[in-house]
Design goal:
The chain is mainly beta. It has a single domain, classed as monomeric porin ompg (Porin). 0% of the residues lie in helices and 56% in strands. This is Porin.
């Protein structure tokens, strides 16, 4: 599942908290292409490790147009304990600013696991940002596991109708530090809420110029039917 990217304030780990965890390429002119490379000590997505608490190397390519349209692709290694070794995401979206304080993003993303079984799924998402607050929702429109919902090796099998709600606060701190405080709730369609869960997290990040952005991160699931141990991890990300 797609990582939350680093920005000037957010740490590696979606940016977001939104389903559209991708960033619009920034450059002069109507078209822009950027690339990103990251390394994390634990790939955490919506509170859950995607690498069995092991490191991950991640990267992608993004296209952005000054109309607000963006598209891109992103790769990461994963480890679900079933022989699935990597994730490949394809995404597109549209975003804009209403004024200096309010902006919005609409997105569609396909999460692919080419060497996995019944794991692929697709979401549409919407989020809005007002000053330091961002809130969003993602809806699963397709899942390969639609005919066999459940949980495999501790990983949810995503099906049509799943909903994910999220919110985050972002603050600029002294010494070029950024603070991100986040939370989310997964409402799964199957099992009458037996697999639903909430999670919280926080990140401190700092840009280091040409050396990229470094972060220290905390994430935790708030339900004892999952691995609810606190996850502390570090990340590095650089855009080109």
């Amino acid at each position: 599942m797609k990582a939350q990217r680093i920005s000037a304030i957010l740490a590696v780990g979606a940016i977001s908290m939104g389903a559209g965890a991708w960033q619009t390429a920034a450059a002069e002119g109507p078209n822009a292409i950027s690339a990103n490379l990251g390394v994390v000590s634990n790939y955490i997505w919506r509170g859950q490790t995607q690498t069995d608490n092991q490191p991950a190397v991640q990267g992608g390519i993004d296209y952005g147009h000054d109309s607000g349209f963006s598209a891109g692709t992103w790769l990461s290694n994963v480890d679900f304990g079933d022989g699935t070794n990597y994730e490949w995401d394809l995404y597109a979206g549209f975003g804009g600013a209403v004024n200096d304080d309010f902006s919005y993003d609409l997105s569609v993303i396909y999460y692919a696991y080419p060497d996995g079984r019944d794991l692929d799924f697709s979401e549409i998402g919407a989020s809005a940002t007002y000053k330091w607050l961002t809130a969003g929702v993602s809806y699963t429109v397709y899942g390969q596991a639609d005919d066999a919902p459940g949980v495999a090796n501790g990983q949810a099998m995503f099906i049509q109708g799943d909903l994910y709600y999220n919110a985050a606060l972002d603050f600029a701190l002294p010494y070029d530090l950024g603070l991100n405080i986040r939370g989310g709730y997964y409402d799964f369609r199957y099992n009458d809420g037996g697999n639903d869960y909430g999670h919280v997290g926080a990140s401190i990040s700092r840009e280091a110029g040409e050396f990229g952005t470094f972060s220290f991160n905390y994430d935790q699931i708030l339900r004892d039917t999952y691995d609810e141990d606190p996850k502390l991890w570090i990340g590095w990300n650089k855009e080109f």
